Amino acid sequence: MLEVQNLSMRFGGLLAVDQVSLDVKEREIVSIIGPNGAGKTTVFNCMSGFYKPTGGKILFEGQEVQGKPDYKISRLGMVRTFQHVRLFTQMTVVENLLVAQHRHLNTNLIAGLLKTPSYRDREQKSLDRAAYWLERVGLMDLANREAGNLAYGQQRRLEIARCMVTEPSLLMLDEPAAGLNPAETKDLNQLIVSLKEDYNVSVVLIEHDMSLVMDISDRINVINQGRPLANGTPEEIRQNDDVIKAYLGEA
Ligand SMILES: Nc1ncnc2c1ncn2[C@@H]1O[C@H](COP(=O)(O)OP(=O)(O)OP(=O)(O)O)[C@@H](O)[C@H]1O
């Protein structure tokens, strides 16, 4: 479903990503790991349309998407979360989920003003989807709370719900376990696995929590100083000498 081919990204004199390739199949959880500054987030920023890569191709469902704006990429079904939670903090929890759907569907202003039947039907479906995902991530009781007042772990779950209401086929999660306690990380683990198993979503995961990565990944890509170092199953990665030297040995 996703193929990244020889992706490169240069910032002035710094080659932050150098010929990185990876692929993601339907219903797969693929992780990208590597030391700080390895270029993981830059790969995500290229995949999600935040950066226009300086080299290489990104194919989603066979279509080239490199250099396309982020809103077009997300409408194709490829959506992401951020390393630092980015919610509308002064809106309520449920409003965050409704706004995500409006932005995604490119709602027609005139239809909205006239409140046509099809518009009302879509509004109802948006509300239903919001309610479903609030229940699913355990935030229903907090639906009318300001998002900025939620605990950090709850904000992280809301971010995932905000992606899921747009019904993506590929979800990109940038360090979703950062700042979570062990119990919250366990919940997150189950949630990510269920996105794949129950909703047929493929997941690309950037994460420093190795036990989470090893536990849920179907395949892992390791990058080091912008360059691909290894890829394989968790078992293969665990035993790879280069990886142990460059990364796992550090931890
Ligand atoms: N917009 C930018 N302009 C200039 N340099 C950048 C930019 N974004 C990232 N970099 C540089 O690119 C390199 C890779 O950064 P990136 O954030 O992709 O690493 P990372 O693997 O995600 O790190 P971490 O695990 O710490 O989040 C770093 O040297 C970083 O300073």
UniProtKB/TrEMBL annotation:
One of its GO terms (biological process) is D-alanine transmembrane transport. It comes from the Bacteria. Transmembrane segments: none annotated. Pfam families: ABC_tran, BCA_ABC_TP_C. CDD domains: ABC_Mj1267_LivG_branched. GO terms for cellular component: plasma membrane. Residues 2-250 form the ABC transporter domain. GO terms for molecular function: ATP binding; ATP hydrolysis activity; L-isoleucine transmembrane transporter activity; L-phenylalanine transmembrane transporter activity; L-valine transmembrane transporter activity. The keyword GTP-binding does not apply. InterPro entries: AAA+_ATPase, ABC_AA/LPS_Transport, ABC_transporter-like_ATP-bd, ABC_transporter-like_CS, BCA_ABC_TP_C, P-loop_NTPase. Keywords: Amino-acid transport, ATP-binding, Nucleotide-binding, Transport. NCBIfam families: PRK11300.1. Belongs to the ABC transporter superfamily. This is High-affinity branched-chain amino acid ABC transporter ATP-binding protein LivG.
